[in-house]
């Protein structure tokens, strides 16, 4: 569902936002797309267990846990940070995942860096037996296939399609299904330019670029300016934004509009990739620092 954004914008520019956050109440946005074909593949390979990776407030961990419960898989979450093992009840994401039946394996941050190495995976198989492995963030060929279904025929009139970027899977799918006249712009939530190589592994088209100036300090970081923007955007549009991904992308697009980045009369489609479950965790952190809270729920 596309929703028109009634923001006052210069140069005849129009904005709509694709509400992927409304696809499912718990498997939100791009996570729904990324898991669709992965779980079909897990069933085709007769797996009973799905194992994946994530951090303390991971949208992906929450989505895999619920999807497993819904589709009859056991789920295992390898969690970055062994100090979180006795703090599950203090963490809304982990508590939700556990209530969905997910089993946790907490590892040190140092060990977590080796999560893609054969020895690390072999040790997990020795401990848990056979499982279907979904990478951190969910990005693989099946995830990209699912994300290729985000754009539909009715989106052909847009000149630009803008999307937040985490591991690169969602934007790769969008790039693959974008039309030749459309430019796809990705807004990384992480510092650095390394994501271009990841995207090139999956993206077949070349009509895309990354805008790297709107990470607000890096992954999981948010400042007062971003929080105020998210709250004001919600008041004006009734569209809730998360502070890790979509909030940064929308801030960036509107900032670029006012800086004359886009040609006059451009039609821009924003992709809302969900992730709203992370607001509760971010507000817990903001409250502990006596900062402004996100008021969109």
From TrEMBL:
Chain ranges of the Tryptophan synthase beta chain-like PALP domain: 13-274
Keywords for the protein's UniProt record, in alphabetical order: Pyridoxal phosphate
Cofactors: pyridoxal 5'-phosphate
Signal peptide location: none
Highest taxon in the source lineage: Bacteria
Entry protein name: Pyridoxal-phosphate dependent enzyme
Organism per entry: Flavobacterium taihuense
């Amino acid at each position: 569902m596309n929703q028109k954004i009634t923001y006052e914008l210069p140069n005849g520019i129009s904005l709509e936002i694709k509400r992927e956050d409304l696809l499912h109440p718990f498997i939100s946005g791009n996570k729904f797309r990324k898991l669709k074909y992965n779980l079909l593949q897990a069933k085709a390979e007769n797996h009973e267990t799905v194992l994946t990776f994530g951090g303390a407030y991971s949208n992906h961990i929450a989505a895999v846990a619920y999807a497993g419960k819904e589709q009859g898989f056991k789920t295992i979450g390898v969690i970055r940070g062994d100090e979180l093992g006795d703090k599950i009840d203090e963490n809304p994401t982990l508590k939700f995942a556990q209530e969905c039946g997910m089993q946790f394996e907490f590892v040190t941050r140092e060990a977590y860096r080796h999560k893609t190495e054969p020895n690390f995976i072999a040790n997990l198989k020795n401990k848990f037996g056979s499982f279907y492995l979904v990478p951190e963030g969910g990005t693989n060929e099946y995830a990209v296939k699912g994300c290729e279904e985000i754009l539909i025929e009715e989106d052909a009139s847009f000149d630009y399609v803008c999307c937040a970027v985490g591991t690169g899977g969602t934007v790769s799918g969008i790039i693959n299904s974008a039309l030749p006249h459309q430019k796809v712009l990705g807004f990384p939530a992480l510092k650095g330019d390394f994501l271009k190589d990841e995207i090139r592994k999956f993206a077949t088209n070349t009509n895309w670029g990354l805008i790297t100036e709107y990470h607000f300090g890096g992954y999981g970081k948010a400042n007062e300016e971003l929080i105020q923007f998210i709250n004001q955007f919600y008041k004006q549009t009734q569209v809730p934004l998360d502070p890790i991904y979509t909030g940064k992308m929308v801030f960036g697009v509107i900032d670029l509009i006012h800086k004359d980045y886009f040609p006059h009369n451009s039609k821009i489609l924003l992709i809302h990739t969900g992730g709203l479950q992370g607001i509760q965790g971010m507000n817990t952190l903001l409250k502990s620092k006596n900062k402004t809270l996100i008021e969109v729920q």
